[in-house]
């Protein structure tokens, strides 16, 4: 049975290009596109995490427009996608909410990023964990804005997922592109088939 999957997009603490810890602003594209991806791959919630109160309030107004206001009637599919979105002030509040939703179960935290030096979990092992793991724990994937999650966030993670590697040297995907690729590799039909085939091969040996 597949584990419950949660996503969190952190806007603090993250790095800027000089390596300083900053707070970034959310974008409408991130809200809409990541919500759609989360809904497509049946994630339980996508948490937009920012400590800036004005940003949280603006995001809530935007969500309300599409889930309860005119937008909900104009575009019902977008309303459905945004119903998986929740706004939080920090990672601590996010974890508390997940534990409440999961009857006290603490999630396995998996951080993501473009650098591979801290990675200790590859995609195959992560797929196994999601689809075949013995422990009945939810999984929370952390994604960062700016130039990536700050080290203090990485230190709270149980695992760091290997980065997405393309065919060239360019390595600057938007976070919404990264979320889509990661979820398809881990939750898409091809990934699930691969895990099942691997298990069948092991049983034959």
Commentary on this structure:
With 205 residues, the chain is of the alpha/beta class. It has one domain: SPOUT methyltransferase, trefoil knot domain (Alpha/beta knot, 3-Layer(aba) Sandwich), CATH 3.40.1280. The chain contains 9 helices and 8 strands. The protein has helices spanning 28-40, 53-67, 70-74, 76-82, 91-101, 123-132, 151-154, 175-187, 189-204, and strands spanning 5-10, 14-15, 21-22, 45-49, 85-88, 108-111, 139-144, 159-160. The strands form 2 sheets. It has a 6-stranded parallel β-sheet with strand order 5-4-1-7-6-8, with helices on both faces. It has a two-stranded antiparallel ribbon with strand order 2-3. β6, α6 and β7 form a beta-alpha-beta unit. α1 packs across α4, α6 (123-132) packs across α8 and α8 packs parallel to α9.
SSE blueprint and pairings:
Elements: E1 5-10, E2 14-15, E3 21-22, H1 28-40, E4 45-49, H2 53-67, H3 70-74, H4 76-82, E5 85-88, H5 91-101, E6 108-111, H6 123-132, E7 139-144, H7 151-154, E8 159-160, H8 175-187, H9 189-204
Parallel strand pairs: 1-4, 1-7, 4-5, 6-7, 6-8
Antiparallel strand pairs: 2-3
Helix pairs in contact: 1-4, 1-8, 6-8, 8-9
Protein name: RNA methyltransferase
InterPro entries: RNA_MeTrfase_C_dom, tRNA_m1G_MTases_N
Keywords: Methyltransferase, Transferase
The percentage of residues in β strands lies in 15-25%
Parts with pLDDT < 50 across at least 5 consecutive residues: none
Overall pLDDT score? 91
User: Would you list the SSEs in sequence order as H and E?
Assistant: EEEHEHHHEHEHEHEHH
